[in-house]
Amino acid sequence: MKVVKFGGSSVASGNQIKKITGIITSDEKRRVIVVSAPGKRSSDDVKVTDLLIQLGDSLQIGVDHEEAYRQVISRFEEIVLDLNLDESVLREVQRKIDDSIALIRSEDPTGIDALKACGEDGSALVVSAYLQTLGHEGTYVNPKEAGILVKDQPGGALVLEESFERLYKLRERQGTLVIPGFFGFTEEDQLVTFSRGGSDITGSIVAAGVKADLYENFTDVDSVFCVNPMYVENPRPLTSLTYREMRELSYAGFGVFHDEALIPAFKEKIPVCIKNTNNPTAPGTMIVAELPEREEHVVGIASDEGFLNLYVSKYLMNREIGFGRRLLQILEDEGVSFEHAPSGIDDMSVIIREHHLPKDKEEIVLQRINDELQVDMVLIERDMAMIMIVGEGMNQTIGIASSATSAFQEAGVNIEMINQGSSEVSMMFGVKSEGLGPAVQALYKVFFGEK
Amino acid sequence: MKVVKFGGSSVASGNQIKKITGIITSDEKRRVIVVSAPGKRSSDDVKVTDLLIQLGDSLQIGVDHEEAYRQVISRFEEIVLDLNLDESVLREVQRKIDDSIALIRSEDPTGIDALKACGEDGSALVVSAYLQTLGHEGTYVNPKEAGILVKDQPGGALVLEESFERLYKLRERQGTLVIPGFFGFTEEDQLVTFSRGGSDITGSIVAAGVKADLYENFTDVDSVFCVNPMYVENPRPLTSLTYREMRELSYAGFGVFHDEALIPAFKEKIPVCIKNTNNPTAPGTMIVAELPEREEHVVGIASDEGFLNLYVSKYLMNREIGFGRRLLQILEDEGVSFEHAPSGIDDMSVIIREHHLPKDKEEIVLQRINDELQVDMVLIERDMAMIMIVGEGMNQTIGIASSATSAFQEAGVNIEMINQGSSEVSMMFGVKSEGLGPAVQALYKVFFGEK
């Protein structure tokens, strides 16, 4: 049994939905389908979820919402017409939107999440109805019926363990089940959405629950690339990756997934395949628990901007037992999570994502460090970028660090930080943001360029 | 005014003392002298301090101590005879030793420190007496009289701030003052010794106190070398170094000094010169607060063995706010100080000196980490060595990391850890101990070999 998830661009129009039903019906193992809300049809289009959020905002602040409402409905109307579906499908979508609007009007706190979820829900209604017109047993299955039980954190639901056992029962059902992504229900029967991009989370949870042989994630790219195409033209595609590699790559802004979306699938060791709705015969990228040893040890280069370095120096720091712990305690007290904390003898750096230390917190943190730790100097360096090279077995391969650092030299980019030694599958470099592009390009040349 | 400190080998015999008095009288600025206890005259000789410790142990456990006593006295007797000094000098040395023995016999807790200090004290008596026979105004000055006030931690005295003001008054005195190293007095007038090697501490404190123009530290090498001569034959001498460079080099076992001995001098920005008693015209190594920019950015390679890596891995560690802090808290609770803590996404390493985590503590620490942090894996990897390359301006120089890592590759040594980014003057590499020699040799070749 395969669980198949289709992203927003794959359900953006009637034409796209014809493609995905073609994909679904071409393989009888594709028994459980998870769909996103209709996405952009072209680069200047608006996603249905964004329209719904706009509609919800308008209702809450009490301004005119007719235009947003009309746009949402017309998106679904167009799809229903393109697919020659019965107008009862559109009425059902509209009824759910209207019900959510009524909840918001009655100031029910669950109304906004209910409205935000109408995009995915509508997609599932449309796809299941269209499968039926093709003579295929397609059934809409609501997440509540499917068994996706979550903890109530509106916009940030967390799945409960018992969901997986419930989802396993979907295996007994006949035909093709179509589940809307992005939301679940609490034990009190309230609809709650996951964080943005949550259809990936639903897909991964369902794949884990039904113990799928394969979780296929259809997007609009042929495969995951070994580097961000923003920096390198036509980068090499990745045919296979391990979970650990994918997780490290995602961490540093690899962009295909939220790094946490795949966790439920990883935990159950379900193989994941990233494929392209517009080119379904391309092999895609397989992500698996283990891979046989490969010739090349570096499989990907990930990078992300928006980091800062909190630098603290104090003469004789290394004689002061507990200094590092107390510095991290101050950050923890102030709710600032950190990424890394390399330390010298009399100095320590803490690498933090810039948005985790906004200006107002920055002042408090600096004040407390000065007062409580009696440091000689504390300063914040912004505009840092992190570059990560990733690959299983890297830490046991002589010469990787040498190749990598030679690339920075080639690019004329100074390495502000190197963090290597804890992770077995990655090596991390800090640079000033302006050096990011040249450094990534040089690394690509070293590890993936023509020999 | 110069403060000059002579190490154990420089006062090991009458002949050596003739050399140092030659050095003292050749420069009238050499006004304050600090001396160690007589050291080894040849490689199989025994240091007077070790004889005194043996004598103290024998007295405490009540075994025969005549032989140890006789050996100590005969060392001083020989020196006094060689220098043709009046026998009253020997009687004074002997009286102090006898007084200390009486303290130990009466179970006075200060007796052992008083006895251990007799080596330095005897050296100062002998050197000042010999200066006088040369017609030079040499005066023995006891640390109490000099003003070295310490906190009472027998064998680990800490200097009190008021010492510096008192020491400054030594500037008013005439002639050459000879102060025994290694000990000070508490406010309750008890003699307390510094940690082993404490004559360097005395010299540095005195230099800071009198605000010397220069602190000369005479040993038995022409200069500090840029790498441990154990690994490289005839390594390049270092003519000048900054305090920060010296401190980083000492940290990783550079061996010339306790890295803390020089701190009082550093704090007062007193220039320090390392010179050779046996070759006093050699320029030595100057250590100063700041240096003009040099052509070569790496000035030294230091290394040390005996580290371990405490490795902890836990799925989703990076989502758990406070994880790193709690791990360090456990170590702090158990009194284990750590060196560095590089972290990945789901894993964290803590580098600890092996002697800081003995077997009995290891069990408790591992147990607590398992119980309190619910980790997936915790393990300890022993036999690690650290290699540090040091140089001002290194962190802003493109290509250093590349040159360094290429050396490891050349040597066929895998880099287990890289820690770069916090210190402005060093870059640290972790390797398995067996790779230490080859790696240091290859690094030397890259940074100091013929171009």
TrEMBL record, chains A, B:
EC number annotated for this UniProt entry: 2.7.2.4
Task: Give a yes or no for keyword Repressor in this entry.
Answer: no
The alphabetized list of GO BP terms reads: diaminopimelate biosynthetic process; homoserine biosynthetic process; lysine biosynthetic process via diaminopimelate; threonine biosynthetic process
> Which residues are listed for substrate binding in this entry?
T49, E120
Which InterPro entries does this entry report, sorted A to Z? AceGlu_kinase-like_sf (IPR036393), ACT-like_dom_sf (IPR045865), ACT_Aspartokinase (IPR054352), ACT_dom (IPR002912), Asp/Glu/Uridylate_kinase (IPR001048), Asp_kin_monofn (IPR005260), Asp_kinase (IPR001341), AsparK_Bifunc_asparK/hSer_DH (IPR042199)
Q: Which residues form the ACT domain?
A: 389-451
Q: Where does ATP bind?
A: K5, F6, G7, G8, T219, D220
Q: Which Pfam families match?
A: AA_kinase, ACT_9
**Superkingdom assignment:** Bacteria
Q: Which reaction does it catalyse?
A: L-aspartate + ATP = 4-phospho-L-aspartate + ADP
Query: What are the entry keywords?
Result: Amino-acid biosynthesis, ATP-binding, Diaminopimelate biosynthesis, Kinase, Lysine biosynthesis, Nucleotide-binding, Transferase
GO CC annotations on file: cytosol
User: Which pathway does it operate in?
Assistant: Amino-acid biosynthesis; L-threonine biosynthesis; L-threonine from L-aspartate: step 1/5; Amino-acid biosynthesis; L-lysine biosynthesis via DAP pathway; (S)-tetrahydrodipicolinate from L-aspartate: step 1/4; Amino-acid biosynthesis; L-methionine biosynthesis via de novo pathway; L-homoserine from L-aspartate: step 1/3
Enumerate the GO terms in the molecular function aspect: aspartate kinase activity; ATP binding
Please describe what this protein does.
Catalyzes the phosphorylation of the beta-carboxyl group of aspartic acid with ATP to yield 4-phospho-L-aspartate, which is involved in the branched biosynthetic pathway leading to the biosynthesis of amino acids threonine, isoleucine and methionine.
Spell out the family assignment given in the record's similarity comment: Belongs to the aspartokinase family.
Q: What is this protein called?
A: Aspartokinase
Instruction: Give the originating organism.
Output: Halobacillus salinus
